[in-house]
Amino acid sequence: MAEKKLVEAITSMSEDFAQWYTDVVKKAELIDYSNVKGCMVIKPAGYAIWENIQRELDRRFKETGVENVYMPMFIPESLLQKEKDHVEGFAPEVAWVTHGGLNPLQERMCVRPTSETLFCDFYKGDIHSYRDLPKVYNQWCSVVRWEKETRPFLRSREFLWQEGHTAHATEEEAVERTEQMLNVYADFCEEVLAIPVIKGRKTDKEKFAGAAATYTIEALMHDGKALQSGTSHNFSTGFAEAFGIQYTDNENKLQYVHQTSWGMSTRIIGAIIMVHGDDSGLVLPPMIAPTQITVIPIQQKKEGVLDKAYELKNMLAGKGFRVKVDDTDKSPGYKFSEQEMRGIPMRIEIGPKDIENGKCIICRRDTREKIEVSLDELAAKVEELMPQIQKDMFDRAKAHLEEHTYEAHNKEEFVDVFANKSGFVKAMWCGETACEEQIKEDMAVTSRCIPFEQSCLSDTCAYCGKKAQKMVYWGRAY
Amino acid sequence: MAEKKLVEAITSMSEDFAQWYTDVVKKAELIDYSNVKGCMVIKPAGYAIWENIQRELDRRFKETGVENVYMPMFIPESLLQKEKDHVEGFAPEVAWVTHGGLNPLQERMCVRPTSETLFCDFYKGDIHSYRDLPKVYNQWCSVVRWEKETRPFLRSREFLWQEGHTAHATEEEAVERTEQMLNVYADFCEEVLAIPVIKGRKTDKEKFAGAAATYTIEALMHDGKALQSGTSHNFSTGFAEAFGIQYTDNENKLQYVHQTSWGMSTRIIGAIIMVHGDDSGLVLPPMIAPTQITVIPIQQKKEGVLDKAYELKNMLAGKGFRVKVDDTDKSPGYKFSEQEMRGIPMRIEIGPKDIENGKCIICRRDTREKIEVSLDELAAKVEELMPQIQKDMFDRAKAHLEEHTYEAHNKEEFVDVFANKSGFVKAMWCGETACEEQIKEDMAVTSRCIPFEQSCLSDTCAYCGKKAQKMVYWGRAY
Q1: How far lies A222's CA from each of A24, A270, A404, A423, B293, in Å?
Q2: Strand (E) or helix (H) holding B234
Q3: Where are the alpha helices (DSSP H) in A324-459?
Q4: Among A303, A316, A292, A383, CA closest to A351
Q5: Full-model pTM
Q6: Which 8-state DSSP code applies to residue B39?
Q7: Radius of gyration of chain B from Cα atoms?
Q8: Separation in Å, CA of A321 to nearest CA in chain B
Q9: Which positions in chain B touch A95 (Cβ < 8 Å)?
Q10: DSSP letter at B472?
Q11: Chain B contact for A444, CB < 8 A?
Q12: Which of A47, A118, A146 lies closest to B70 in CB terms?
């Protein structure tokens, strides 16, 4: 490969954000396109991010009592059809298996687009008494949705996710679990991924097929578009009635269970890229970065340089940081741009002169600021800087979210934002689906959520002028 | 549920081993059957074992430089057909997807039965120069094989596994990796699962479809039947030639890459059950057991008993053990049999009298031995016993393997073992596939492996009398 800077190989964000995104996922070696149309290959640099997400989310789930299980990947057609709204939502976008080996199947099966029906079928046989409740199960798996337009991480025919499915004795407990898991997602996004989110409830039009209520966290990307980043659904007794999932309560009466489901997927990697990335490539928050520091030796063939680089690496690894030395035969400049493209939060440059002076250079990926540090103070400086980078990344994303959230008090203001700016619009809404559909048709704008934190901006719907019911976040979404 | 002992609900091993196995997987709550024919639901107790297997294997893989990735789950038919032997081996047992959403696909795709073809297709585009080698990739996923007869863990239409796929510059390096991964599997089985294995090479008849050589580890179940527990394949340049995977070497010449693949699956949970289980249920080796100790309070309603149980639990958890207290309202006897059925390596019984005397009872699951220990010495005793249980379980399995391995010097001895005993037969073999096929036809016995540790038992093939080539392990297999 020629030694030109990697950064020259990518489009700038301001020029073409979509092309910038595609360039970054490829050049940062997160994915590759495959010959299976609409499916991607997740390469080591991308999969390592997913492994860190899994580890951290799974730990948080288990702290709330979640147990992991594994359900079959196939759903017989008759099972998919048991809940009417659910099948209407998913049947048009599933992949159908019609043959097993050389023989046609008696009943065709789809590859799971989501597993509510499989969990219901299982719970029906597994739940008998109130002593069997609650069931708080989750699975990590891949799902398939036959999308026409696909984009890496954001929308692909197969993607990885976790899906939690719970069953409870009471509606109260189900509502509590739905909210609890939404909070787990929100805290994870803010604390670990440094992505601020808006928590709220979906409108009836936007809720999950078969749900009584869908809660969501919505994040704002660098280009002002929204990304639904995690959802948590309360099914009430809808699925239980369709599938006949009943338990005997402590007065020996038969009752339907109350159910929830909640999921987060590899889509969130798209959010990390589009919230934090810049024209030099990916920028990973330290807490999720598979490698946190690259030590880059300068004039590495000079005696003692590589040894010193490894000494620093081992010292920092001993402090619990994830560190690598780049000792390949590429030029330092190329190594710098590679480390930047891959979003590694910090690099340490160390050459013969530095060693002589007992110093080295730290370069922050997020600000690209260079800091000279004496080798004696290196560990302390890295320990101070790493959480600072994490915090600064969150603060910048939070400022961007606030700067790109607009209030609209009437139709003119509403239209103006989506014509001339980009971001979230907070506006009062009448609560009618017809109005929501009109907004979508007119401007390709959808309701993102009815935020839990409500405020009253006016008495009338900003779009249609009818009596206002709720304040809603609106946006163009991925 | 009635308070009768769980053990009464299962068939004894000696009466009907197959039924005992089925009873244990159900009563220990490892799996449930699903309405998707031939597929199982892996319940929390079963999945937690798989999570421990994953964690430990993944750590060992990464120590050898393995990186995790994720490939699509679908294989277009034309891709599956690229390597002739491979497609012949797998096409008869794959599930075919023919429709995406409402439309028929232009080309049907199968759900991966294994992913050699997908990795090859990816490597073809990703490998250019010797600098790109080696590639040492692995994925954790589920695969589908359309089996007619299925049994939980042992043979099901969908199962979970890991599959490693590597590409190397030289044949030497590929052979080395094939052997290295077989050793990782063997060490894992022996050190973590307490299952002794025979390492060797498969005959041409038994090797993987498309492989130049297949290495295997073979374990002996309690009933004397063999279980192939992990395999590692060397493909030489076979797949590379079929897919055109070439690199430029350091003299600028085009060369084919040398490839390997290796896998271990949820099948290994079947081995854990059938090697260590007994008439009271599952027996889990401490290193893989999700819960290692159950503290069972006696007369738990008496003041101080539950507090003491939790105090012991916290003390032992602080020492790094995985401990639970069973404070349900079941009787102690029922709790004992539940802990035994689930194979939890140790239980601690503590009641008002014990507390008065400053003592408790430890009961080992493997030997069912009861040991009175003073509370002061409990931690030290558990720290001594836990590795002892692990070691004793291995030693017993090893002794069973040795007692059930027979030498056959001629056809009479060969036939006698499989007619009147059960286990492995070590015997010299002529090396001809026709002879191997005859043995299978006559006695439903297959070659398990040509062990790396060879010895010469005679000059002639024990079965057909022709000149002997190698010593082979024979057995009836799952």
Answers
A1: 14, 11, 10, 9, 51
A2: strand B226-236
A3: 332-341, 352-357, 378-403, 411-420, 433-443
A4: A303
A5: 0.96
A6: -
A7: 25
A8: 17
A9: 74, 97, 99-101
A10: E
A11: no
A12: A47
CA distance B401 to A19: 61
Digit-coded pLDDT (tens) for A379-425: 999 999 999 999 999 999 999 999 999 999 999 999 999 999 999 99
3-state secondary structure of B68: strand
| CA–centroid distance for A32 within its chain | 19
User: Scanning the structure block, which residue is given the tokens 């019911």?
Assistant: A469
The strand pair at A246-248 and A254-256 is best described as antiparallel
Instruction: Answer whether B70 touches A (CB < 8 Å).
Output: yes
3-state SS class at B9: helix
Q: Residue B230, CB half-sphere, CA atoms under 13 Å: how many?
A: 30
Q: Based on the number of CB atoms within 10 Å of its own CB, is A254 exposed (0-12), middle (13-18) or buried (19 or more)?
A: exposed
Q: Which of B403, B413, B409 is nearest to B456 (CA)?
A: B409
Beta strands (DSSP E) in B73-191 are 74-76, 95-100, 103-111, 135-144, 158-168
Contact call for residues B468 and B425 (beta carbons, < 8 A): no
| Spatial separation of the C-alpha atoms in residues B262 and B264, rounded to whole Å | 7
- Residues A315/A317/A320/A322 CA torsion (nearest 10 deg): 140
Which amino acid is residue B131, in one-letter code? Answer: R
Q: How far apart are CA B319 and CA B170, in angstroms?
A: 47
* CA distances, A8 to each of A27, A275, A340, A366, B128 (Å): 11, 21, 12, 19, 22
CB contact at 8 A, A10 and A18: no
Judging contacts by C-beta atoms under 8 Å, the chain A residues touching residue B142 are 70, 73, 141
Instruction: Tell me which residue of B110, B142, B137 sits closest to B126, measured CA to CA.
Output: B137
pLDDT in tens, B381-390: 999 999 999 9
Please count the other Cβ atoms lying within 10 Å of the Cβ belonging to residue A212: 20
The two structure tokens encoding residue B17: 């081993």
Confidence check: pLDDT of B3 > 80: no
d(C-alpha A448, C-alpha A229), whole Å: 11
Pairing of strands B67-68, B135-144: parallel
Model ipTM value: 0.96
